[in-house]
Amino acid sequence: MKSRSRLMLEKSVAAMLSAIEIYNKPDFKYREETFSVLCINSWELLLKAKVLNLASNKMTSLYMMEFRTLTSGKKSKVLRPKRNRSGNEMSINLFEAYRVVTEDYGVKIDRAVSDNLIALTEIRDNSIHFVNNDLLLSMKVQELGSASLQNYLHLVSTWFGDILAQYNFYLMPLSFFRNFDDAPGVALNSSEKKVLDYIKNSESQYDDSEISDYNLTLRIEVKFQKVKSTSGLPVQLTNDPTATTIMLSEEDMADKYPWDYDTLSTRLTKRYSDFKMNAKYHRVRRELEEDKRYAYLRVLNPLNPEGGIKKLFNPNIQKEFDKHYTKIKA
User: Fold this and answer.
1) Where is the DUF3644 domain positioned along the sequence (predicted)?
2) Type and span of the H or E element at 32
3) Mean pLDDT, to the nearest integer, of 68-77?
């Protein structure tokens, strides 16, 4: 049976694939608007999948909580899930999920990811409440979307392993069928101009010449050029049953061991009043790392077992640390 975090992740991937499919259609009149809505939805589901993963798949970790008003008019002393008009529990939004992952659990995410999501959200909100009909804004969605896909691929791979190898994640470059050299002559309405000015201000904080694993925007250029080359990487398939078999997947390891070193340290800091990252902590942690119930050594490159490794931890490891530190009273 699949865990809640894995099911949420699958929905996230489905939403991103839908965004890409819509965007790459040869003639779609609501391309950029629909892409921005589905892309942001995919990111929200990814972050919620990570929250569930870090919280041992407890659905309450996704609920908006509130102190309810009692019949006496006073506020309750116990937090309860906030409910919507139909009576269902309301879940946290995209940026609250981002805050929980980065602040409550201490997971490090490059700032460019946050800036990219904010910019795309601005376009999504503008798309829902207004009408976007400008070529420059279309080009900016292309740049933001390309960077967002790259960021998405890196985080999914880092958090959940190599589960996207079967998919092709790319946006067809608009320059393939549109001439953006003529775009500056297009007039903008006031709403679209404000969105573009906002994104331009965000872009000014980044170095255009530097492309890293995580980016705010990516500018893609397509050039047609005749090339004759015999170079390439030789690949050979074989049906030889005696050939070496290489397994690249780590099934459900991300669900069982969702915490890395930084996340573990952050959670212990919030859990105990006398916790310090000193020799005692490292000694206890190293002892527990020998127990497969609490720790797992993930090989970063399955093709090179002698390469780097990353230590991952099961949340149940906290119960062992309870024997050595004093828990903070709620």
Assistant:
1) 8-205
2) helix 31-54
3) 82
